[in-house]
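Appendix C reproduces, verbatim, an entry submitted by the partner laboratory led by Prof. M.T., so that reviewers can inspect both the input and the predicted structure.
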Amino acid sequence: QVQLVESGGGLVQPGGSLRLSCAASGRAFSFRDMGWYRQAPGEQRELVAAITTGGRTNYADSVKGRFTISRDNAKNTVYLQMNSLKPDDTAVYYCNALHWAWDWGQGTQVTVAS
């Protein structure tokens, strides 16, 4: 079973940037399309960015042009570069495979506030 460990969250002012990382154990990572998800208090978890095994990316409209997803298969890691952050981006951020998801990690809290 693959374990996922997210990191890089924190408190940032509106307009600021953060880079999230998600490290996955096991070699299965490189064979999976991956996604970054977020869940705000009282809301359902939503997919915000996705990347295929070949590096093709897709984004939710709410983050398009501000967030960039990338992956390093040699390091079993997927990243989310978040720029021009807004208070509405406040949430716990998770990564997981897009299909046949593994157990969820603990996530990393992102808080955007002045």
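The beta strands are 4-7, 10-12, 18-24, 34-39, 46-51, 57-59, 67-72, 77-82, 91-97, 108-112. Additional entries are available on request from the coordinating office.
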